Amino acid sequence: MKDYDSKGIPHTTPRYSATFSPDANSDIRRAAATGIYDIRGGGAKRKVPNFDDLLFLGASISRYALEGYREKCDTNVTLGTRFAKNPIELDIPITIAGMSFGALSGAAKEALGRGANAAGTSTTTGDGGMTAEERGHSSKLVYQVLPSRYGMNPDDLRKADAIEVVVGQGAKPGGGGMLLGQKISDRVAQMRNLPKGIDQRSSCRHPDWTGPDDLEIKILELREITDWKVPIYVKIAGTRPYFDTKLAVKAGADVVVLDGMQGGTAATQDVFIEHVGLPTLACIRPAVLALQEMDMHRKVQLIVSGGIRSGADVAKALALGADAVAIGTAAMIALGDNDPKWEEEYNKLGTTAGAYDDWHEGLDPAGITTQDPELAARFDPIEGGRRLKNYLKVLTLEAQTLARACGKNHLHNLEPEDMVALTMEAAAMAQIPLAGTNWYPGKGDF
């Protein structure tokens, strides 16, 4: 039955175009008004197939479950067993991804070190060098070598427990980072050897190599500097994971870090975040196949990052063949970023808690993604470290619970046959059967 107005004209429900949606129209108006592309932080906001589209098949008659309170389920992992004299021994297979001092405050970097150390895992420097706070509170610290080379020096390389050569990042494959001038404080400028208060754009590729042969030379240089003691990671963005994994292994990597498009970033173009790269779910199986074909699976360790939120995500990534995962955005949320208690101040910035992504502006009310002394003083690194430790503990317990339910006494014993997919897309990406069948699309193809 139609509804009519006072003049007898039938009302109609407004219909938005699927192509020219309100969001698309807003972007067009902003571009027309400013002539500048949109820059923001965070990760992809579009919905893509992810770990939620997979389910575990718990034990029943055909599988024997483990008793949660009486039977062990181990979680330890060793990274860098291929060439390094001193591989990294972790209590849990959950590491902290690289986030720079500059993008994050010094106190936030300290909290990451405190929390990771208390949980028995590692943290990573990010761009811009090594801070004394993070090194001092991290028993296991990975030092990133990025295309920008900001803050890079041999002394810090030798202080690290592992080195991560960053070729690409999941949020912006093929693109460099940005650090706006308002976040380049005296200390950031000194560490990065940059002018204070001037916008900086990081390089999209390393200046001294153009391909895998040059990468091999760079890895050898790093091994000579560190006397072959520490593992060398190579971080690749999720774009061509099968080929890039093979090339990284061929170049001599001890560990491959694979970052999917749901991974976060401090600042880059919105068009990068939403339209470049592969979902994390689509990256893992091709990378594992590459390692298997080279007889390097579990010999060269695979760390997966990009959108890991829960113990279920951890368990599913390991079941698909990863040795460990890395978290970044989730770690920041655990510290207290985008907390609703700052809602009124987020509103003043024109946003809301949970949606704030203008990290590059340095106005974070939580004091985490800022260099403003007054804002940074709001954040307590000791409390932040405690919160991160608690979060890592819960992730580990959740992953153990799922592994025991599948009859596994170590997280690394989880395997693809322990899962099914809920959607055709997830089945094809993860190469596991659609629920209720023994089939998945595109079997054998990527």
Largest sheet descriptor: 8 strands, parallel
Low-confidence stretches: none
The overall strand count is 16
Radius of gyration: 23 Å
Form type: globular
N→C terminal distance:
51 Å
Judging by the overall fold, what is the CATH architecture? Alpha-Beta Barrel
Q: Give the neighbour order of strands across the main sheet.
A: 5-15-14-12-11-8-7-6
CATH topology: TIM Barrel
Describe this entry's structure for a reader.
- An 8-stranded parallel β-sheet has the order 5-15-14-12-11-8-7-6. A two-stranded antiparallel ribbon has the order 1-13. The protein has a two-stranded antiparallel ribbon with strand order 2-16.
- The model has no long low-confidence stretch (mean pLDDT about 95).
- It is of the alpha/beta class and about 450 residues long.
- It contains 15 helices and 16 strands.
- It has a single domain (about 50-335, about 380-430), classed as Alpha-Beta Barrel (TIM Barrel), CATH 3.20.20.70.
- It is globular, with a radius of gyration of 23 Å.
- Helix 10 links the parallel strand 14 (about 300-305) and strand 15 (about 325).
- The chain has helices spanning about 20-35, 105-120, 130-135, 155-160, 185-190, 210-225, 240-250, 270-275, 280-295, 310-320, 330-335, 345-350, 375, 380-405, 425-430; strands spanning about 40, 55, 75-80, 90, 95, 125, 140-145, 160-165, 180, 200, 230-235, 255-260, 270, 300-305, 325, 420.
